[in-house]
C-alpha cells in the first residue's frame, strides 16, 4: 500500500522540518530502506565512540538512537490510535525526560541499535497495511491535529534528521 505525502494542513508547522527530510511520493519504501541502511551505518560506529557527546548537555550517539526508538514508538502509537478512528486526544511527551530515564548509556550500541531495528519492524508491519481511509484520518496529539500519513512521514524524517546530526556533529573530522 502506498502512503502519499501529507498536505501541509495535516500537521503542525513544527513537523515540516522532518517531513522535508523525506523525498518521494511514498514513505513506505523510505521506511524500509532506512531500516537496513541505519543498521549498516550504526554497525560502523565503534563502541568507544557511542558515548561521545559533541558538546556539554548534548545526548550521546547511543542516547540519540534510544531517542529514535522511543519517539518512533510514540509516533506509531499515535498512528495506530488515529488509524483505528480513535478520537481521544493524546498527550505530548518530553524527550528530555525520556532519554535519561531510558538509561541507554548502560547498554551497548549494538543492543540499542538492535532495539531500534525491532521497533522499525513493528512500524513497518503497521504502516504497510494501512488502507486509504485510515491514512487520512486525523487525531489530536499534544494539542495539535495530525493525520496518520503525516505521522508516517514524521517517523522517517525524524530518523533522517538525527542520523544527519550524528554524521555532521559526532563523526565528522
Could you characterize the architecture of this molecule?
With 173 residues, the chain is mostly helical. The protein has one domain (25-47, 56-170): Four Helix Bundle (Hemerythrin (Met), subunit A) (Up-down Bundle), CATH 1.20.120.450. Helix content is 57%, strand content 5%. The chain is built from 7 helices and 2 strands. The chain has helices spanning 16-19, 27-43, 61-83, 95-102, 109-127, 132-135, 148-170, and strands at residues 138-141, 144-147. The protein has a two-stranded antiparallel ribbon with strand order 1-2. Helix 2 runs parallel beside helix 7. The chain is globular, with a radius of gyration of 16 Å. The termini are far apart.
**What number of domains?**
1
Number of helices: 7
Strand and helix order: HHHHHHEEH
Gross morphology: globular
Q: What do we call the CATH topology? A: Four Helix Bundle (Hemerythrin (Met), subunit A)
Defining key terms:
single chain, 173 residues, mainly alpha, Four Helix Bundle (Hemerythrin (Met), subunit A), two-stranded antiparallel ribbon, 7 helices, 5% strand, globular
Tell me briefly what this model is.
By secondary structure, this protein is mainly alpha-helical. The protein has helices at 16-19, 27-43, 61-83, 95-102, 109-127, 132-135, 148-170; strands spanning 138-141, 144-147.
